[in-house]
């Protein structure tokens, strides 16, 4: 597969404040200006992996409910990307681990850039629960923009 410089920006969106910040920051840094984008929420059965856009408590064993909530979360992110000037669509995919779902999706749509917010998990916590940013940057052949929480 050829890496495309003109493919869409893929926003990995989990519904968190940091994911929202990543979309806003990408709009400022690279400018939406009508650029194509896809807002992606990765979900996992039995391990939700995102914050539902309507803040509902989810039973991860209810796969259809989790998938529906993932689609709604991605749609909420799409609205943020559109507000940042992107021509956005949304998608939700089931994948484990999360980083692989993001990388595979970006490859499938020939993404020019992957954008996400890093929760800054490192040390023992990062080792036990994995670091999406570490794994994604280490395994993806796509350019990656990692947005960190602003220090006040």
Describe this structure in words.
With 152 residues, the chain is α/β, with parallel strands linked by helices. The protein has a single domain, classed as HUPs (Rossmann fold, 3-Layer(aba) Sandwich), CATH 3.40.50. The chain contains 5 helices and 5 strands, in the order E-H-E-H-E-H-E-H-H-E. A 5-stranded parallel beta sheet has the order 3-2-1-4-5, with helices on both faces. Helix 3 runs parallel beside helix 5. It is globular. About 4% of the residues have low confidence.
CATH homologous superfamily designation: HUPs
Radius of gyration: 14 Å
From the spread of the alpha carbons, the general shape counts as globular
Mean pLDDT: 84
Strand and helix order = EHEHEHEHHE
- Write out the strand line-up for the largest beta sheet, numbering strands in chain order: 3-2-1-4-5
How many structural domains?
A: 1
CATH architecture level-2 label: 3-Layer(aba) Sandwich
The CATH topology name reads: Rossmann fold
Count the beta strands: 5
Number of helices: 5
Kindly state the percentage of residues in helix.
Answer: 25-40%
């Amino acid at each position: 597969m050829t890496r495309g410089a003109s493919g869409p920006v893929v926003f990995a969106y989990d519904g968190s404040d940091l994911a929202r910040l990543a979309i806003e920051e990408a709009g400022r840094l690279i400018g939406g200006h009508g650029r194509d984008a896809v807002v992606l929420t990765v979900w996992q059965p039995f391990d939700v992996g995102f914050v539902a856009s309507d803040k509902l408590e989810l039973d991860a064993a209810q796969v259809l409910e989790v998938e529906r909530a993932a689609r709604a979360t991605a749609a909420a992110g799409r609205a943020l990307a559109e507000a940042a000037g992107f021509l956005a669509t949304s998608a939700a995919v089931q994948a484990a681990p999360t980083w692989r779902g993001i990388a595979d999706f970006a490859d499938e749509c020939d993404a020019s850039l992957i954008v996400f917010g890093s929760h800054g998990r490192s040390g023992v916590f990062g080792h036990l629960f994995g670091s999406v940013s570490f794994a994604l940057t280490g395994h993806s052949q796509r350019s990656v923009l990692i947005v960190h929480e602003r220090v006040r």
